[in-house]
Amino acid sequence: MAVTLEDVAKIAGVSHTTVSLVLNGDKKISESTRKKVMRAVEEMNYYPNYHARSLANGKTGTIAVVATFFSSFFAADIIKGIEDESLKTDYNISQHSTKGDKKREEAVLKNILYGRSADCVIAVSIEPPAAILEEFKNRGVQVVFIERSMEGFPAVKVNNYRGAGLAARHIIKSGRRNIAMLYGMFESGDCCNSRERLAGFRGALDEAGINLPDRNIISSAYEMDDGAKAFDEIYSSGIKADAVFCATGDMTAIGFIKRAQAEGLKVPQDISVIGYDDLMISSVVSPPLTTVRQPIIDMGREAFNIACGMINAPDKEATVKMFEPELIIRESA
């Protein structure tokens, strides 16, 4: 005979409502009660009937994570944070890649929405069309953004303006003056993160009376190969940069360094390089990478908790959780 929610509640000595709240990650439940319930769940081998629960209360028990790619280190750390928190709840996590294609992104979101396959979407580094977001609102499916912020929706972000300013001031302090920057672009165009980082970087240089010519701002994607291509573009165009800020992330910074070294340049003697993210690999490359740290795993955790809160209280006011970055100084700059 199948174990029921009521059976678990009896063993745990709580109401079936409390068991349901624990399994759905409600933060109002005390830690001691949560542990007691989860102990009963494990002892009785209780597996919730997600299909029946969906039919009964209109909820799927699933949170969908939609990102451009899950192969990137950034997305992997975001997922780690989400999974860390999801293990404390009964929510399932589904992953959906858009592969950086706007048509695919729209199709993925419509499949989730019209197929009613999730109670909430955590959108990582994407900006869906306003019309689709309005449909999500109308149908009561929550959306939480990571890295982007859309009016009327909760979001988790890092203070990109300040982070880029930290990078610029470190470069200035080192005495470098011929400075270049890699500016993030997707096939569909730039994004708010790129604009915020450019504004913060340029603002700090302006304060120091240092000009950043438009030709020194190099459009780039986000992988190692893109960093190598950016190096080629800078040097083929005659820009004699002695410092570069890879606002596109640590992977492009590493690709830039590898190509610079292959061309006989020394880092940081000939050119200093600063990345953005502080991925695990950044401390073990040669030379170790100076970078702006984003608390990526914490961002994933926060987004998941916001998602749970919005599912349980859909009328809750949408807020933006802003994390502060930190400059991690190593040998590349």
Descriptive key words:
six-stranded parallel beta sheet; single chain; 17% strand; 333 residues; 434 Repressor (Amino-terminal Domain); Rossmann fold; six-stranded mixed beta sheet; 12 helices; alpha/beta
Structure description:
- The chain is of the alpha/beta class and 333 residues long.
- Among the domains are: 1-48, 434 Repressor (Amino-terminal Domain) (Orthogonal Bundle), CATH 1.10.260; 160-295, Rossmann fold, CATH 3.40.50.
- Helices cover 44% and strands 17% of the residues.
- The strands form 2 sheets. The protein has a 6-stranded parallel β-sheet, sandwiched between helices. Strands 7-6-8-9-10-12 form a 6-stranded mixed β-sheet, with helices on both faces.
- Strand 8 (243-246), helix 11 (250-262) and strand 9 (272-277) form a beta-alpha-beta unit.
- Helix 1 (5-12) packs across helix 2, helix 2 crosses helix 3 and helix 8 (160-173) runs parallel beside helix 9 (192-207).
- It is elongated.
